[in-house]
Structure formats: C-alpha cells, structure tokens
Write a structure and sequence with these properties.
Mean pLDDT is about 85; it is low at about 325-335. The protein starts with a helix and ends in a 20-residue tail after the last helix. It has helices at about 5-20, 30-50, 55-75, 80-100, 100-120, 125-130, 135-140, 145-150, 155-175, 185-205, 210-240, 250-280, 290-315. The longest helix has about 35 residues, at about 210-240. It is elongated. By secondary structure, it is mainly α.
Amino acid sequence: MDLDVFVSTHRAEWDRLDALLRRRRRLTGAEADELVVLYQRTATHLSLIRSSAPDPQLTGRLSGLVARARSTVTGTRRASWRDAVHFLTAGFPAAVYRSRHWWVPTAIVSTIVAALLGWWIGTHPEVQSAIAAPTELRELTRPGGGYETYYSSHPAAAFAAQVWTNNAQAAAMCLVLGIFLGLPVLWILFLNVLNLGVGLGLMSSAGRLDTFLGLLLPHGLLELTAVFVAAGTGLRLGWTVIDPGPRTRRTALAEEGRAAVGMAMGLALVLLVSGAIEGFVTPSGLPTWARISIGIAAELAFLAYVYVLGGRASRTGDTGDLEAAERSARVPTAA
C-alpha cells in the first residue's frame, strides 16, 4: 500500500467525519446516515493501515475518530436494575457453568489432596510435632480448644464480615492473578488445601474428627466451592494466555478477563452467604445435624443455580461477558 496515495484519497472523508462529530446542533437524518457510513469506512481504513502500512501518527488520529464516532452512533448507556437482574439470573451463573470443566476437577483434586494431607498428618506424630509443640496441639484440639472457640471468639456479625472480606479477597486474587499463567492461583489454592489438611489431621489424631467436620461443613461446603470456582476460572484465564484458541490472544484475554471480573462480584455475594452461615450458624447451639443440613442445602442451591440457570443461559449464548453491543467493534484485520 502506498500510504501517501491512500491518505490523499480518503482524507476528505476523515475530515468530513470529524466535522460531523464536532457539529453542536442536532444532525439531520441525511447527516446521521452519512456519519454512520463514514464511521464504517474509517474503521475499515484504520484496519487496513494497521495491517499493511502502520503509521503511529495516522493510526492515532483514525483510532480517535473511530472511537468518537462509535460513541456517537451507539450512544451512551447507563446500568439499570435490569442489568443487575440479568447478571444474577444469567450472566454470572452462565460464566460459572462455562468454567465447570476447570473448577470441578480443581475441587476434586483439591479435596483428595486435603484428605491425603490430613491422613499423613494424623498418622505421623513426627509431622505433628513439626507443626507445633505438643502442648499447643492439645490446646488447639481439646474440647473447648482453639478449633472450637475460633468460630465464637468474636461477635457473629463482625466475625461474618471479617470472614467474608478475607475469602472475597482470596477469590478475587485467584481470578485476577490467573493471567500470570495460573501460577499464583496454584499457590493460593495450595495454602487453602494445606490449611484444611492440617485441621483434618490434627483433629483426627485427637479423635475429634467428627467435631471438626461438624464445625467445617455448615459453611465450608459453599465457601470451598466458591474458592474452587475462583481458582478454576483463574487457571482457565492463565491457559488462555498460552492457548487463546481461534481468537486472537488480545481478544480472548479481554473476553475472559471481563467474565472473570464479573465472576469476582458474583462470588463475593456467594461468599457473603457462606460468611453469614459461618458467623451465625456454625457457632450456634443448633444440633450438628441441623447445622450440616443448612450447609448442604446452601451448597445444593448454589449448584442448582449454576447448572439450571447457568446451563440454560449458556445454551442461549450468554458467556458472562458484556453484551455484544457494549463490546469493542471488530473490524477486518487484513485487506
């Protein structure tokens, strides 16, 4: 492409588009139609210049023109309650459903590793002694010890808020840091699994595994599921960096990244529920079977929410990303 010839041929169209965008009065019908046509042509011109004869100054000017024209053509849009309802009933569950091939294996492997760690710690006294002194371990595992009083050591509301904040931060870190090939996600996941394995091992060695599970399961089922969803999605985002599939890497990361940000907000709501259970149900005087039943009910409700609502939304094309009209316009990348 001869850039000088191309510029001299199309400069008048670009100047006319710029003039229409600067027009302060309302455009006539003919002028509005002309603006749309010029916007489409300029977008194509920008694509041709980027692919055939990139010029930073010209590319910058045309990029600005295309962005301003697109804003004028599509208009601005404000978020509404309809958007929030769509996010909760379709966007978020669809995003979780689409990631199930990542977070379900993550949950299974993590649970197996935690169980193996618990068995190893519980059956090897030398490992327990490496964790803490015998007196400290007895203080943690005895009736009324550290593991039991942890859930009632603070006022329920304050404790629930603290737990929710910590878990939401961990989930958000898994989602955001997944772009670094998923390596930070593996570390965060390992720390959670290790913490669970230590609790299982120490309480089982003291013959109080039933007590530990009775305290863990009411809130832990939903809480751990949310963490596994975040970790699996973060790993998926990391894999997108390596293999973006048929999309360009930039497009794939943009789409998956926007969906991950939405999932961070959705999982914060899920963790708010698990935090409330941990703050008000786990330390309550309810029978163990009742507390565990509440935890199982919350977990089953979330799974039904994902597989019923999310599956339905996913099959209709919802991915958890922005709606098509709100995404950046795609133009050809080659002449």
